[in-house]
Amino acid sequence: MKLKICGMKYPGNIQQTAQLQPDYLGFIFYQKSARYCTAEIPKLPQTIEKVGVFVNASLDDILAKIKQYDLQLVQLHGAETPEFCLLLKYLNIRIIKAFAVGDYFDFDDILPYEEVCDYFLFDTKGKKPGGNGIAFNWQLLDHYPSQKPFFLSGGIGLTEIEKIKTLKIPVYAIDVNSKFESGPGLKNIQSLQKIQL
Ligand SMILES: O=C(O)c1ccccc1N[C@@H]1O[C@H](COP(=O)(O)O)[C@@H](O)[C@H]1O
């Protein structure tokens, strides 16, 4: 199982987190988030892929951030349409399409995205578009109908990681965020060091 650490904001903290060699580091480009990233991202080891997280951003905005930060993937965490994803795909941009999961989830919703994104991500439906710090009922994924690899996110801490390891669902990567913070965007390195996948 791969690891994405999301919501990075402070250069020194980014460098310390990178030393833990996660597979992905995520940077939030959603202005209303307390984790909104305006930092200069330090040079990272090539094994770490930089993911820009966007919520209903314009194509121009996404392209500008990809260029400015040399992002390898975009995570679309809003109501982006399959047509919008297709536009990005034509530009050779790799896409993680996020879906908010409530008490119920209709997997028909992911079908139009099957051909136009590289990964799915399932996060908890909450008051905010992301970073709510709450887990959803993962058993809803028992009937996952797709072969596409997916990220699991939403309130994942050390206890949740241990539970995820026992699940039968094919989790490609876990995405951790607020449960490993000392403050918004400031990751707690000691807690992150305890992650064992
Ligand atoms: O973290 C944010 O502030 C955020 C804002 C807007 C979109 C996505 C955001 N974060 C993503 O939310 C999930 C779950 O985070 P948490 O563990 O529940 O805090 C994660 O995928 C982040 O990428």
From TrEMBL:
<dbReference type="Pfam" id="PF00697">
    <property type="entry name" value="PRAI"/>
</dbReference>
<comment type="similarity">
    <text>Belongs to the TrpF family.</text>
</comment>
<dbReference type="InterPro" id="IPR001240">
    <property type="entry name" value="PRAI_dom"/>
</dbReference>
<keyword id="KW-0057">Aromatic amino acid biosynthesis</keyword>
<dbReference type="InterPro" id="IPR044643">
    <property type="entry name" value="TrpF_fam"/>
</dbReference>
<dbReference type="GO" id="GO:0000162">
    <property type="term" value="P:L-tryptophan biosynthetic process"/>
</dbReference>
<dbReference type="InterPro" id="IPR013785">
    <property type="entry name" value="Aldolase_TIM"/>
</dbReference>
<comment type="pathway">
    <text>Amino-acid biosynthesis; L-tryptophan biosynthesis; L-tryptophan from chorismate: step 3/5.</text>
</comment>
<protein>
    <recommendedName>
        <fullName>N-(5'-phosphoribosyl)anthranilate isomerase</fullName>
        <ecNumber>5.3.1.24</ecNumber>
    </recommendedName>
</protein>
<keyword id="KW-0413">Isomerase</keyword>
<feature type="domain" description="N-(5'phosphoribosyl) anthranilate isomerase (PRAI)">
    <location>
        <begin position="4"/>
        <end position="195"/>
    </location>
</feature>
<dbReference type="InterPro" id="IPR011060">
    <property type="entry name" value="RibuloseP-bd_barrel"/>
</dbReference>
<keyword id="KW-0822">Tryptophan biosynthesis</keyword>
<dbReference type="GO" id="GO:0004640">
    <property type="term" value="F:phosphoribosylanthranilate isomerase activity"/>
</dbReference>
<keyword id="KW-0028">Amino-acid biosynthesis</keyword>
